[in-house]
Amino acid sequence: MTIDLTRRGLVLGAGGLLLAGCDRLNEAPAFRELLKTGERLNFTAHRAVSDRQALAREFSPAERSPVFRSNGTRLPMTPQWQRWEEAGFADWRLRVFGLVDRPLALSLADLRRLPQREQITRHDCVEGWSAIGKWTGARLAPILRAAGLRGDARYLVFHCADAIGGRSYYESIDLIDAFHPQTILPHALNDAPLPVANGAPLRLRVERQLGYKQAKYLTGVEAVARLDGIRGGKGGFWEDQAGYEWYAGI
Amino acid sequence: MASASIVDPDAPRGGAFVRRHRLTTRITHWLNAVAIFCLLMSGLMIFNAHPMLYWGQYGANFDRPVLKIGSEANRGYLRVGDVEVTTTGVLGLWRDGDGQQRRYAFPGWATIPSRYSLADARLWHLFFAWVLGAGAALYVGAGLVNGHLRRDLLPTRAELKPRHILHDIAQHARLRFPTGAAAARYNILQKLAYLGVMFGALPLVILTGLTMSPALNAAWPWLLDLFGGRQSARTLHFVAALLIALFIVVHLLMVLLAGPWNEIRSMITGRFRLPREKL
């Protein structure tokens, strides 16, 4: 074994040690817990400086992205979703269940009959890109009121028809975002029925959070008191699988 | 200097030890140094998730980037506007420690973590952003209260005269550094560099960082107007980070040239040995 004791070697060696140290810290549970205080700080700080009703910016039609990029699942492979798609989503239903007094099963026609909200908003992916598009759909709040959300409900879990690596996609939000005026269930993107790549027949828009919150291919909305008993317990597919923050406001 | 007719006989001379940096400066210096390194390196990992920068409100794969780091079959490249530079081995296409070929924009030795993990890099970045914010606020706050900023960093009218600045640039270019008591004071280039980072690059990097948050866009819509959109802010965030990185390179170089042991000791213990006057 030879030891490289040139100055360059020492500098590179020290740099390597530093990097290896960062990687080891990255794997250390206690240090990860420390890092995660950042998410709690962000969540607390954002909620402290934000009006609950503060609206995400809405843009003019001319400001839309020429092509609205899709991400994640672009074509669900689950047999159930494929049967729905073949039938033009005629027998597809959105179930509203869990901690509600009156569980619902809404068809696309039911959802289109509700008062519609149109909004041209920006979709921000956790990876860094943004796309602006026009969404049309019913607000979530009246649906929750119609279902009679119970007093012990704290979160809404969005169940999806697509699966990644054999695991179904899902997401969750708290009630502040659930009742936000711009939180809608769009069935249309840029005045056309929601394309398959963007979540047909119905998806979620929760405009003050990142793209992975915007669950696609919705099948159900479940009101729950806690998230830790559901799937991986972290409140969402990417939260469970990759360790993304549950609060995706930044 | 023959013109230095008024010499304080009690002033410390070359070779003497002086107290140079107060405790708040020393603590916040190292706090901010750690935070900035973690932020820069985790930031490069986050960039790897989407190695393009855009201008305006939106920007994604179908839109035209102002900067892109990418790769073709056997070539890595950096493209800024219409100018493309081959960067094989460093950017876009490189080999990791095991000799494995990788196509991420920035190589593993420059990122935290060294492997690709957007989730982990975000944990680091969004934690150390608070550390830097607190460290910078503490430094500036203390500096305003105890007079450090006004006394030691605010340039005097005489120092801002072009002749003085040009003289200082010439002295730096010849690697002639102040000796004696003058070495313990900040020269004008130092003052401008520190103030530029403190009141230019740092506020820019913090505000553009906040502008990338969809939640804060709703809370403070003026952020979007200030920078002309989230994607412009993302690009400016990168520019500000680059300016800070350049500052660090020059800063470290100057520490090396001015005597690294003496300089580092003064930032740890506060004690600084004045360089001897050249006769």
Uncertain regions of chain B: pLDDT < 50 for 5+ in a row? 1-5
Would you tell me the overall average pLDDT of chain A? Answer: 95
Quaternary: heterodimer
CA radius of gyration of chain B is 22 Å
Tell me the Rg of chain A in angstroms.
21 Å
Q: Which strands sit side by side, in order, in the main sheet of chain B?
A: 2-3-4-5
Query: How many strand segments of chain A?
Result: 9
Q: What string gives the helices and strands of chain B in order? A: EHEEEEEEHHHHHHHHE
The number of helical runs of chain B is 9
CATH class of the largest domain in chain A reads: Alpha Beta
Strand content of chain A: 15-25%
CATH architecture of the largest domain in chain A: Alpha-Beta Complex
Instruction: Name the overall outline of chain B.
Output: globular
CATH topology of the largest domain in chain A: the name is: Sulfite Oxidase, Chain A, domain 2
CATH superfamily of the largest domain in chain A: Oxidoreductase, molybdopterin-binding domain
What profile does the largest beta sheet of chain B have? Answer: 4 strands, antiparallel
Strand order of the largest sheet of chain A: 2-1-9-5-6
H-E order of chain A: HHHEEHEEHEEHEEEH
User: Biggest interface and its residues per chain?
Assistant: A-B, 51 and 46 residues
- Roughly how many Å apart are the termini of chain B? 10 Å
If you had to describe this structure to a student in words, what would you say it looks like?
The complex is a heterodimer of chains A (250) and B (279). In chain A, 29% of the residues lie in helices and 24% in strands. With 250 residues, chain A is of the alpha+beta class. In chain A, the strands form two sheets. A five-stranded mixed beta sheet of chain A has the order 2-1-9-5-6. A four-stranded antiparallel beta sheet of chain A has the order 3-4-7-8. Helix content of chain B is 53%, strand content 10%. Chain B is built from nine helices and eight strands. In chain B, a hairpin with a 2-residue loop joins strand 3 (67-72) and strand 4 (75-80). In chain B, helix 8 (230-258) packs across helix 9 (260-268). The longest helix of chain B is centred in the middle third of the chain and has 29 residues, at 118-146. Chain B is globular and about 70 Å long. Chain B starts with 16 loop residues before the first strand and ends in a 6-residue tail after the last strand. Residues 1-5 of chain B have low confidence and may be disordered. Classes of the chains: A alpha+beta (250), B alpha+beta (279). At the A-B interface, helix 1, helix 2 and strand 4 of A face helix 1, helix 2, helix 6 and helix 8 of B.
